[in-house]
């Protein structure tokens, strides 16, 4: 008798029911016992294959497990049962992986949400959470997602890329590592900007690994994704409200707490709201070398992005630009080209223009043989110090 998970919802449901009634764990032995209890007599090799597949459906990531285990994969995206995409750093690729039907995608999304301690059902049809292994989960159920549950998984690798690795991957141009090392050593405050998936977190983790071992780094993140290779890191993560609407911890709360934890480097994983006020205030009161990331289409858009966040939080335009001018010095802007390659497009310095508003002035631009200097280079060289 040949048995497979695909095309056999009854088999899977039967295993679930037997495990629940027997109060047994979904271990390989438990799944095998459940199969035999239902009258499925299999050979040893066939049994092992079915046990592995069933257990993957019950406690793993189902058909997505091989993709998530691939060390090159950074994102797994499911838009339909037969439309499973991955990103290996070369743009999105359609895989051969397929689910049995839309119901299988929904069940996997709901189970992963439950593992993350979140609710995902018709009353709350979307979830944004972090799984125990650090993987970022986002899911949307129909009818909000038309046709099928949409599932997005962002893989967080257990170690950060080093600067030499980013240099080899051409994220950093030849010789550009000297500039980045000097930027960290000079304790200049900076932001890394770019679009979604451009590599902001990867670059920031690598740069934090260059911080001296005697310094204390305090991270405040919406979802704990930064993995700096550093001996003294304190990590803080936001928390959503519970079912009763209580217990929420915002990024703004974390930044305020981080300031009381004697940080040598205060890092905000992504500046996206009112926490910008506390970050700018901190960088204006002796906390040098602070940094973070921000979503922006270009480096030139960063001041406007900060202005929008600041004014939404109650700070008027003039005060916001004064704070930015005094607190931040450099913007590193990342892009992702059509081939899917991530690279530092430019390094800008922040200066006031004739009207008193902060603008981003290009100091270095990407070049195949190394950074090409722009009109902001002299100011950047002054910030870097040393032999520059």
Short description:
This protein has about 400 residues and is α/β, with parallel strands linked by helices. Helices cover about 35% and strands about 20% of the residues.
Helix content: 25-40%
Give the low-pLDDT segments: 1-8
What is the strand arrangement across the widest sheet?
9-8-10-11-7-12-13-14-15
Q: What's the rounded overall pLDDT mean? A: 86
Strand content: 15-25%
Q: What string, H for helix and E for strand, traces the elements in order?
A: HHHHEEEHEEEHHEHEEHEHEHHEEEEH
Number of strands: 15
**Number of spatially distinct domains:** 3
Structural class: alpha/beta
Shape descriptor:
elongated
Task: Report how far the terminal alpha carbons are from each other.
Answer: 74 Å
CATH class of the largest domain: Alpha Beta
* Largest sheet entry: 9 strands, mixed
CATH architecture of the largest domain: 3-Layer(aba) Sandwich
Q: How many H/I helices?
A: 13
Strand and helix map with partners:
Layout lengths: L8 H14 L5 H10 L6 H16 L5 H5 L5 E6 L2 E5 L4 E3 L7 H14 L10 E5 L5 E5 L9 E5 L8 H6 L7 H10 L4 E5 L5 H9 L8 E5 L11 E5 L13 H8 L6 E4 L6 H9 L7 E5 L6 H11 L4 H11 L2 E7 L5 E11 L5 E8 L6 E2 L3 H8 L4
Parallel strand pairs: 7-11, 7-12, 8-9, 8-10, 10-11
Antiparallel strand pairs: 1-2, 1-6, 2-3, 4-5, 5-6, 12-13, 13-14, 14-15
Helix pairs in contact: 1-2, 2-3, 9-10, 10-12, 11-12
């Amino acid at each position: 008798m040949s048995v497979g998970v695909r095309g056999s919802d009854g088999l899977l449901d039967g295993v679930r029911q037997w495990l629940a009634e027997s109060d047994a764990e979904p271990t390989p032995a438990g799944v095998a016992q459940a199969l035999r209890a239902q009258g499925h007599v299999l050979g040893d090799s066939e049994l092992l294959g079915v046990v592995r597949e069933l257990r993957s459906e019950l406690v793993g990531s189902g058909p997505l497990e091989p993709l998530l285990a691939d060390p090159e994969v950074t994102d797994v995206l499911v838009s339909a049962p037969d439309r499973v995409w991955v990103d290996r750093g070369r743009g999105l690729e359609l895989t051969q992986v397929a689910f049995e039907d839309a119901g299988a995608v929904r069940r996997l999304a709901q189970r992963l949400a439950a593992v993350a301690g979140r609710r995902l059902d018709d009353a709350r049809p979307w979830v944004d959470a972090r799984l125990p292994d650090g993987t970022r989960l986002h899911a949307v159920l129909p009818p909000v997602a038309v046709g099928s549950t949409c599932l997005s998984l962002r893989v967080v690798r257990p170690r950060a890329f080093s600067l030499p690795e980013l240099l080899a991957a051409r994220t950093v141009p030849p010789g550009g590592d000297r500039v980045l090392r000097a930027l960290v050593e000079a304790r200049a405050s900076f932001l890394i900007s770019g679009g979604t998936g451009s590599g902001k977190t990867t670059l920031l983790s690598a740069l934090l690994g260059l911080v001296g071992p005697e310094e204390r780094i305090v991270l405040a993140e919406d979802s704990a994704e930064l993995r700096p290779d550093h001996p003294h890191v304190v990590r803080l993560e936001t928390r959503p409200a519970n079912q009763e609407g209580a217990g929420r911890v915002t990024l703004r709360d974390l930044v305020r707490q981080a300031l009381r934890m004697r940080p040598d480097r205060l890092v905000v994983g992504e500046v996206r709201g009112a926490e910008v006020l506390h970050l700018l205030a901190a960088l204006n009161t002796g906390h040098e070398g602070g940094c973070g990331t921000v979503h922006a289409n270009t480096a030139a858009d960063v001041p406007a992005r900060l202005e929008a966040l600041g004014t939404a939080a109650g700070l008027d335009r003039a005060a916001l630009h004064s704070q930015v001018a005094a607190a931040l010095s450099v913007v590193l802007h990342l892009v992702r080209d059509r081939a899917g390659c991530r690279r530092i497009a430019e390094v800008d310095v922040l200066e006031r223009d004739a009207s008193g508003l902060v603008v981003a002035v290009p100091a270095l631009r990407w070049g195949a043989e190394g950074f090409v200097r722009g009109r902001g280079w002299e100011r950047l060289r002054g910030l870097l110090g040393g032999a520059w």
